[in-house]
Amino acid sequence: MNPNSFIAAEVAGAVKALYGAEVGNDAIQLSATRKEFEGDVTLVVFPFLRMSRKAPEATATEIGEYLAANLPQIESFNVVKGFLNIKLSNVFWKDYFASIAAAEDFGQGADTGKTVMVEFSSPNTNKPLHLGHIRNNLLGWSVSRLLEAAGNKVIKVNLVNDRGIHICKSMLAWLRKGNGETPETSGKKGDHLVGDYYVEFNNMLLEEINEILKSDGINPAEATPEQKKEAEKRAECLQEAQSMLFRWENNDPEIRALWAKMNGWVYDGFDVTYRNLGISFDKIYYESQTYLLGKALVERGLKEGIFFRKEDGSVWCDLTGDGLDQKLLLRTDGTSVYMTQDLGTAERRFNEYNFDELIYVVGNEQNYHFQVLKLILKKLGFDWSDAIYHLSYGMVELPEGKMKSREGTVVDADDLIEKMYQTAKETSLAIGKLDDMSPEEQDELFMMLGLGALKYFIIKVDPKKTMLFDPRESIDFNGNTGPFIQYTHARIKSILRKGAEQGCVPAMGDVTLLPKEIEMVKVLSSFPDKIQEAAAAHSPALVANYAYNLAKEFNQYYHDVSILKEPDAGVKAFRLQLIDSIAKVLVKAMDILGIKLPERM
């Protein structure tokens, strides 16, 4: 039983004994004692005044005296106005730590009975995954693991955007410029190859725009944005790409075959990146298989008068009465947009899983999209639309600025993973201490450190914030980094191994906890609550920073308190038990973030 639960139960008993009144949990208000006062837990006594018929200070004193007289777990108390500060005894903290050490599933929340679906990744099949996708994937994965730790059934899903004008652009560029190039003939991963042709299409488009502007007597360098936009509409390659999309939606066999071939290249490339990141999904949806579901909903909405058709044949939903604007659902030629397929996919998912919450992990530039999605689903009569939650996160930027896919200035995910590996290797070799590790073990360690640095650096930032990513800063073995926590875990495991060599193994004993050890137990005790807090906020950053604080507390303890040189065998065994529990909680916390901790380094 954690400190708050223990105090709450005993306060309820004290109030009944003193005043003959039953009190519910809602009347017992507890918090951590403020640093300027002595104590561990503070009780607000104002709710009990009508029962005691006494002043706040007198009531607090009376309850405090009762608790101290009847419970060996209460060391002392003090009263500040209407607040009772309770200091728990060494007996309590030792017994509580014993329960932590014995619990195999410490931190795991009780089964909530709820099903939560988390959609993340959602790549386009016209380019490889990049740094922005990495934040999406790492955030989606860690949120999923966090919600599982909080007691929910979680279904991790990916919606692959495998159709649309962007796909057709890569296809057209490959037809014009590819000369039959394949991943095998080029030596490139399939997603990289297709991404190169997406960039090539943009080059083709710019060339045509410039030619159109020149033919109109306009200097491209002096053209206004409006003039460039008008020229883009007249560009032959863009019109041809749009024609390809129309043919695809009408099941043109030639276009469909090319689409399937190039998407196949991309999927093979994605699989490698996901595997390297340690990411997997319970189910993958494909836009090509769900967009027709959305079109069926649009047709229903038209019949029911929820949507309307304009003179050009396009279909819209009028949201002006809701303070928004009109939203396009079908283009003039009948082709669908992102909103169309999101409507159909959401309905299919609810029918399949009857979820209690559907979380979309998508960047904050799509805030409006999900506001509209929920509203349109509501208008279509789906009350479960209230279960949709957009986990909106900020963009990842580099020291040199923003990335642009069409211009090919993105940081490729595969290149970044390799860079993190090399940086971890260089840093580790410079520090040394790897002579007793085989080349294979060193290689595994470098990848563990590189990915740990990348994942932690990204996840430790609150999802809502835009972040600046610096690979070398992330690999630092000091400070709030993944490698610092990984090194802390390896240090603990080393101490435990040396303890075993001395014939001493972790064990509880009849010991008196030092003040620093009580502080360590307090930090450990907050882990279950931190998981619940983080899950409610959809923020694994809270768990990341908890792990960092726990690692810091251990290192300070290790600096101040002798462990292996402690002459009392019982005390030494207890201290080994304490740090073993710290290591286990670090493993659980970092596992939520998808980060592995080494046994040695």
Secondary structure elements and their pairing?
Layout: H1 3-19, E1 29-32, E2 41-44, H2 49-52, H3 56-70, E3 74-80, E4 83-88, H4 90-102, E5 115-119, H5 131-149, E6 153-160, H6 165-177, H7 183-186, H8 190-215, H9 225-234, H10 236-249, H11 253-277, E7 283-286, H12 287-303, E8 308-309, E9 315-318, E10 326-330, H13 338-353, E11 357-363, H14 367-379, E12 388-393, E13 396-397, H15 413-431, H16 439-459, E14 467-468, H17 471-474, H18 482-501, H19 515-525, H20 527-537, H21 541-560, H22 569-592
Parallel strand pairs: 5-6, 5-11, 6-7, 11-12, 13-14
Antiparallel strand pairs: 1-2, 2-4, 3-4, 8-9, 9-10
Descriptive account of the structure:
Among the domains are: 3-88, Gyrase A, domain 2, CATH 3.30.1360.70; 162-265, no CATH class; 413-592, Isoleucyl-tRNA Synthetase, Domain 1 (Orthogonal Bundle), CATH 1.10.730. 56% of the residues lie in helices and 11% in strands. A 5-stranded parallel β-sheet has the order 7-6-5-11-12, with helices on both faces. The protein is α/β, with parallel strands linked by helices and 601 residues long. The model is unreliable at 402-408 (pLDDT under 50). It is built from 22 helices and 14 strands. Helix 8 crosses helix 9 (225-234) and helix 12 packs across helix 13 (338-353). The longest helix is centred in the middle third of the chain and has 26 residues, at 190-215.
